Target: Peptidase M28
Amino acid sequence: MATTRKYGREHQVLESVIALMVILVACIELCDAATVVDVYRLIQYDIGGVPFGSRLSSLNHHAGSSPFAPGADLSRTVVVVPVRELNISFIREYITQKQPLGGLLFLLPHILNSENQDYASGGDHHVKEIMRGTFLELEQLLIHSNIPYPVYFAFEDDNIDAVLADIKRTDATGQPATATTGGYKFVVSAQEPRKVSSPTITNIQGWLPGLKPDGETNQLPTIAIVATYDTFGAAPALSVGSDSNGSGAVALLEIARLFSLLYSNPKTRGRYNLLFGLTSGGPYNYNGTHKWLQSFDQRLRESIDYAICLNSIGSWDNELWIHVSKPPENPYIKHLFEGFSDVAEELGFKVGLKHKKINISNPRVAWEHEQFSRLRVTAATVSGLSIAPELLESTGGLFDRRNFVNVAAVISGIKLVAEGLARHIYGHQGKKIQVFADNSNLAVNPSYVKSWLDLLSQTPRVAPFLAKDDPLIVAFKKELADHTREINVHNEILDGLFTFYDSTKSKLNIYQVASVTFDLLLLLVLGSYLILLFSFLVITTRLKAHNCIAISFELPEMNTRPVFGIEIPWEV
Model:
C-alpha cells in the first residue's frame, strides 16, 4: 500500500508538471494583446452564380506592411495598407494575378468614420478629387474581383497607428514578421460566411390627394416623386451613402413636408395627386422600383403625368443634370426642362439636359427613371452626376460620407424640384413667383435637412442586411405618415440574380509575438526549473516512503483475527 501511495504521488506530480509545460508552450507565442479593433469585411456576393468579393472571414497570420521585395512569400502574411499611402499597382498585381496573400487590411482615414462628428464640407477641392479617384478605383477593383482570402477595412487611430509603425520598423530590417522573428499576429475569429436567405427589399409610399373640382368625374393626374434609399459598397457595414442616395431620400422627405403644408389647406391644394416613393434595391438595377411599379393598377399607372427621381444631389458645384430617356424635342420633356431651367436661373445655378435612349431588350437600367420609361411613363432623374454610372458604381461607397456632402447643395436641389413642381401644379410657368420663398412659412427647413442627412450618414443601408422592421424603415414610414396619407409598405424579395453572404463586421485581435529565440530561452529556463522541482519532489517522496517502511519493521506483533478469511489487526 505504501508503494502504491508512492507511485500515486509521483504520478500526480508528473501530471502537474506536464500540464504546466503544455500551458507554457500554448501561451509562449502570443505574449501580449496589443489592441482590439473593429474591422469591416469586404462584401461577398455572387451574380448569377459567379463569385465576387472576399470569400473568407477568419484570419490568423503575422502582419506586414507594403511594399515587399519582389518574390516575397506573403501566403501567411496579413498586409496592412493605409489608403493614404495606397500603391494601387501593388494591390492590382496581387489581386488580378491571383498571387497568394494571408489577408489584406486597409486602413481608412479617420475623417471617413461616421462617428467623427466633424462634418465640415470645406477643404481643398483638388485633394478631395484625388482621394475620391483613389477610393473609386480601389473599390471597383475589390468588388469586381474574386478574392480567396480575407479582406478587411479599419479606421486609423492612435493604437493601430502605433502597431503599424512597429510593423514598418520590423519590415525595414529586411526580416518580415514570422514565427522565427516575432512581430505582430492578426487574429479574426469568425464563422464561415453563410448565404443570406430570401433578402428583402422594402418600398414605402405616401399619397397627397389633389383637389378635384366640383362635378369633375375624371381621375386627377398624378406626379410621382421618387428616391431610392439603400446603398452598396465594398464594406456593407460602412456603406452609408450620404450622397448616393441619402441626399435624394432627404430631399424627398423635405419636398413631402413642404407640399403637405400646401395640401393641408383646401384653398392651396393643387389639382394633381402627389405620389411619394422611397424605393429599395437601387444598386441592383433598381429592382425595388421595378417591383413597386408592377404593383400599380393600370388606372394609377396611366394617371401619372410624369415622375421625378432624385439621385445624388449633395456633391455638385454649379450645375445639376436632368437625365431623360425621351428625346429633348418631346413636348413633355421640353416643358419640364424649361420650367426647371427658369427656376435654376433664379436660384443662381444651371441645369443641363442629358438624353440616353433605353434599350428595351437589355434589362440593365442606369437611372431610376428608366424603369418608368419602360412602362411608357414620362420620367426624369435630377442628379449631380453628369454621366450614367456603371452597375454597382456610385451607390454609396467608402468615400461617400457626410464630410463630403454640402448641405447647401442639397437645399438648392430641393428648392429646384419643389419650385418647379409648384409652378407646374399651379400654372405659374414663366412667372417669377416663389412659392417656397426663404423666410416664409413655406421655406425649406435647413435643420430638418441636416438632421436627416446626419442620421442617414450614420446608418449603413445595404438592402440584404436591412430587415423589413429595421428602425430606419420604421422611421421612414413614420415620417411619411406625418406628411402624407395612405402610407403603404411593400416588402419584396430581391430578384435571384444576386446572392449575398453575411459576416460583415468583426473584432480584430492584435497580438505582439515574441521571437522563437526568446521563446526557446524562456522554455529552457522554465523547463529546467520544472525538472529540478520534479526531481526534488520524487526524491523527497521516496525518502518518506523508505522511512515509513523502516518504522513498520520495528512495530511489535499485533494480534489478528480472521474475518472472512482475511487477517485483520485486532490490537497491539
About this structure: The chain has 13 helices and 21 strands. The CA atoms of residues 301 and 401 lie 36 Å apart. The radius of gyration is 35 Å. The longest strand covers residues 30-41.
